[in-house]
Amino acid sequence: MKIHGDKYRSELVTSYSHAWDRTRCIEGAWTSPRYGTPGYNLLLQPAGRVYFAGDWLSHEVAWQHGAFVAARSAVSALHQRVMAG
Ligand SMILES: Cc1cc2nc3c(=O)[nH]c(=O)nc-3n(C[C@H](O)[C@H](O)[C@H](O)COP(=O)(O)OP(=O)(O)OC[C@H]3O[C@@H](n4cnc5c(N)ncnc54)[C@H](O)[C@@H]3O)c2cc1C
Fold it and tell me: Which of 40, 44, 52, 82 has the fewest CB atoms nearer than 10 Å to its CB?
């Protein structure tokens, strides 16, 4: 009420909130291995046929731009692997 005032009662239809820090296997929001560390660099490498991507694996955590950059990186690596035969 302090933020939205009377509009909260008259205009809000529904709302939802979620405690990510209490969600199993997530347990936090916008967390990431620290950019440039050995652990981070390891995750940039595929584990066999598995490639990792996501905003968390970029220098722009919590932004779609980071997700696009990571996705493009993974797809490019896959493409190079396939083309190399
Ligand atoms: C409230 C909120 C507001 C935001 N606002 C903005 C904004 O204004 N601008 C902006 O640029 N970014 C914003 N973001 C961030 C943006 O949404 C994320 O950076 C982006 O969606 C990350 O994309 P992603 O592909 O890395 O991950 P996600 O979009 O999280 O995709 C991961 C997918 O993997 C699926 N998945 C997980 N585990 C498994 C499994 N074991 N098997 C199969 N599938 C699995 C998930 O269900 C999900 O669909 C916002 C995020 C939130 C939460």
Answer: 82
